[in-house]
User: What shape does this take?
Amino acid sequence: MKMGCSFLQITGIPNEQDKMWTRISFLIFTFSVLIRDSVLVTGREEVLRISPPVPVVSVGATVELVCHTQCPNSQPNWEKTIDSAPGKITFHPLKAVLRIDKVLESYENDYKCTTKCRGKFYSKDVYLAVYSFPQNPSVELTSLNPVAGQTVTLRCSGQNLYPCHKVKVYWYQSHELLPDPEEPTVTMNDHLCNTVSHRNYTTTSKDRDLTFTCEIRLGLPTAEFQSKNSSLEIHLNTGLYDVWIEPVQTVEHAGRPLSLSCGAGSSNVPTITWRKADSGSMAPSHWNISQGTRYSTLYTEKLEAGDRGVYICEISDGESHTQRQSSVEVWYGPQDVSIEGGGSARESETLVLTCQGDANPEANITWGRREAGDEQLRWNISKSRGKSELRIDSLRRDDQGLYECVVENPLGTVRLEARLNVEYRPRDVSIDGGGSARESETLVLTCQGDANPEANITWGRREAGDEQLRWNISKSRGKSELRIDSLRRDDQGLYECVVENPLGTVRLEAQLNVEFPVKPDLEDIILGLCVPLVSLLGIGVLIYLIRKRLFKDLTQGKSSMSEDRSSNVPPSAPMQSSPC
Assistant: This one.
């Protein structure tokens, strides 16, 4: 710009021209800036680039959508038009990768990549197309053993397809497209769908070998996964035509009537016979057959459970032979129902009850128990077709009782019962009575205990003698009483109660102490009397001796005193004889 100004000043251009050159210089400057900023020059489409540009992915597959940017220092990001992106987004310099490990039908949508470049926001959308076409279509001929001149029906089916609204079915005969295609029947299965198409074709006498091809197309953005096809070869018989059987399939209740009819067109009157597939020969004896000109009817007044199966109608005109099949399904309530197991089992053993029965539709088998409690938590129930097992590990006393098996379907219910008897050794055994009792009183000892089978209770006594003849023993279920009237001293001792059954024995003891008064005998009485008498006599003798001793001592004392007195008197003067 400075150079431009200098140039204008040197040349001396008028003012109007100066303004014009100023504008030209500004445009040249702006154009140079645009050249340097390739983002703005190339436009919005060059800012972001997505690969693959048209993604088409099978259901369950993995897909990666990569969004690149041409703008430096820019970080693209993925957005989904509804909700959030279903996969995982990883970021790299100038790109973002959206990875979906398992594509679902619901992931089909527009996905948007956005970025900010030089202060402006840019976005680009890509549509993720999802399809499901797991296998080739199935083609089958619904008319068995076709003959020339017969109208045959072909059936083409495709399973688990998507997108359902873009399903088209085309039929080819020997690689030629058949006109007027029938609109296929589409049934939904969640997001996926199944399609069925039927095609009728009338054969001619010239037809011997025919090839039909069914093609199913999906309307996808690319042609790579648009269609799949399958072919079927048909070899026609000659002579018989318009062969038919009615009904091809039927379901009827047992006890009701049913008829099957079969026929064919032929220049000759055909021979028609019936047989049951599993018997290999004629139809069951309770079925009747009526013959017409070119048809035959097999009928019964009362269906039985064993009548279910496939019935074959064989048609022959002497030159050609064919057959048709009719499938008969008989519904009936539970029959041949049985229950096995139960009876007696020991505690801690394992119980297995089996209940089974035949029914159509298949019966539901359930288990129950009268007055059942929490023990049902220990039940292990397994089921197979028409059979159920109830297993109880480590039986307990409270598992004893009546078990019920219920076999039912919409046509009937059968109930069977099995009784379980749990055997266990004696327990909760106790003995009452004993202790102290007075002579001549009555003793009652009670012993009882719970056991299965019922325990036998017996009584005994250590060093017992003939006193057992006075025992009165009474028994009731799980209890026994020992009664002894008018106790004696020799009834005292240790009594034993034995409670036993085949599974175990329990022994308990009770001590009896007989109290009685002491009765003294004659010797004791004499001895008792003699002792005090002898004592008294001894005391009397002792007193007598003491008194005698005292008397003697007193007597001797007096003599001594007399002598003492005599010795103390002065001697008297000798008497002098009187002078007389």
